[in-house]
Amino acid sequence: MTKKAKNFKKSKSGVYLSLGTTAFGALSVAKQARLARQENDTLRLIDAAVSAAAIVTGMAILYRELKRLGDDDVLLG
């Protein structure tokens, strides 16, 4: 059972799930940035920018992993 759980992270389904949760996290970062701008809170705005950069980097890594898993898939390029 634990072997299945370990291999799920490296499966296409696991990568798609990770992409979805990372994209969902982007919504909360956008909300945080909007509130920081409304309140003129520079520190929170910097925190939102760093979080956004982390999300972009995470999405790029997950996309690379998805391409690596689907090298034989015509739709992924």
TrEMBL record:
Record's keyword terms, sorted: Membrane, Transmembrane, Transmembrane helix
Regions crossing the membrane: 42-63
Name of this chain's protein: Uncharacterized protein
